[in-house]
């Protein structure tokens, strides 16, 4: 697989944006890396880099070569998984790009459940906003994406889609906590903390606010849903979350109240993969487990849990 080693070096140079920096990262000389790249370009019959004053950048041919390289690595991983399955011991690696909302309890529980049956499988979990998660699928940086309200869905093959209602999260002693359902105008009329604009929850909040000639004006804006959950207990403000982001028994000091669908439409929590890609065995099996768990979560959801 000597050609894969050359492609690995090209990817390193592309990632670093510099031959010298990539060579340092790989603990080889810059001249050795240049010779390896030049040899590949000569055999391939086309240059793969633009030489810039500040370094190097993949040209269109190089982008296609890297796409082929990542697809080849994915195929090799899938074959290795199939071979491991022949021996009765599943191995492999699963990479997931996901929204922060899935981190507190849902995704850890699912990973632990999978690894209890297949301890030879390892995981990487990358916290990404909805646009970056889709990009990672296209770049083969992640096998699966689990995000709320994806942006483009061009190369996104939907495995399962689960509706989620945006809710207000607050302390149990907040004046609005006694209501079963909240109007968006009441939430925005009091101090609130909100996720940044790159997240699906904020996208829906801004949409609903515009419809009602209002504005989301948070006292704190953050990329962390964990900060939102904790901050509402500090200043007694209102935060925003989707139900799957909070376990019903997470913290008795917190309550979750749905925001009326008259103000905010349902959003979609979507599990997906890159369109047309055949996933490695471990990733495909984990996707099946996640899809079943998400569908069960939706079926079991009860207003009393809020």
Notes on the structure:
With 306 residues, this protein is an alpha/beta fold. The chain has ten helices and twelve strands. It has a five-stranded mixed beta sheet, sandwiched between helices. Helix 1 packs across helix 3. It is elongated, with a radius of gyration of 23 Å.
- What is the CATH superfamily of the largest domain? Periplasmic binding protein-like II
Put simply, the count of helices is 10
State the end-to-end distance.
55 Å
Query: How many extended strands?
Result: 12
Low-confidence stretches: 302-306
Counting structural domains, the number is 3
Outline the biggest β-sheet. Answer: 5 strands, mixed
CATH topology of the largest domain: D-Maltodextrin-Binding Protein, domain 2
Give a quick summary of the entry:
This protein is an alpha/beta fold and 306 residues long. The chain is 44% helix and 21% strand. β8, α8 and β9 form a beta-alpha-beta unit.
List the helices and strands and how they pair.
Elements: H1 2-16, H2 19-26, H3 30-44, E1 49-52, E2 55-58, H4 60-86, E3 92-98, H5 106-117, E4 121-127, H6 130-138, E5 144-148, E6 156-164, E7 167-171, H7 184-188, E8 193-195, H8 200-211, E9 220-222, H9 225-235, E10 239-241, E11 254-258, E12 267-274, H10 281-300
Parallel strand pairs: 3-4, 3-5, 8-9
Antiparallel strand pairs: 1-2, 5-12, 6-12, 7-10, 7-11
Helix pairs in contact: 1-2, 1-3, 2-3
């Amino acid at each position: 697989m000597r050609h894969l080693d050359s492609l690995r070096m090209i990817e390193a140079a592309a990632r670093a944006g510099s031959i010298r920096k990539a060579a340092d990262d790989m603990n080889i000389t810059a001249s050795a890396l240049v010779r390896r790249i030049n040899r590949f370009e000569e055999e391939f019959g086309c240059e793969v880099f633009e030489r810039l004053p500040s370094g190097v950048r993949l040209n269109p041919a190089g982008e296609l070569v890297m796409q082929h390289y990542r697809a080849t690595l994915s195929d090799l991983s899938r074959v290795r998984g199939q071979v491991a399955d022949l021996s009765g011991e599943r191995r492999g690696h699963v990479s997931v790009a996901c929204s922060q909302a899935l981190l507190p309890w849902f995704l850890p529980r699912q990973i632990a459940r999978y690894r209890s049956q297949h301890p030879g499988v390892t995981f990487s979990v990358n916290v990404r906003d909805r646009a970056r998660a889709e990009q990672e699928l296209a770049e083969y940086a992640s096998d699966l994406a689990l995000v709320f309200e994806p942006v483009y869905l061009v190369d996104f093959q939907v495995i399962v889609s689960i509706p989620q209602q945006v809710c207000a999260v607050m302390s149990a002693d907040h004046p609005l906590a006694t209501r079963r359902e909240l109007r968006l105008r009441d939430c925005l009329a009091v101090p609130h903390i909100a996720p940044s604009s790159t997240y699906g929850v904020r996208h829906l909040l801004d949409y609903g606010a515009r419809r009602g000639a209002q504005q989301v004006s948070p006292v704190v804006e953050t990329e962390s849903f964990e900060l939102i959950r904790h901050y509402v207990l500090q200043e007694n403000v209102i935060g925003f979350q989707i139900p799957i982001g909070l376990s019903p028994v997470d913290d008795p000091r917190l309550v979750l109240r749905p925001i009326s669908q008259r103000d905010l439409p349902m959003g979609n929590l979507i599990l997906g993969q890159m369109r047309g890609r055949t996933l490695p065995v471990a990733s495909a099996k984990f996707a099946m487990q996640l899809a079943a768990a998400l569908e069960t979560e939706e079926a079991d959801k009860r207003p009393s849990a809020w």
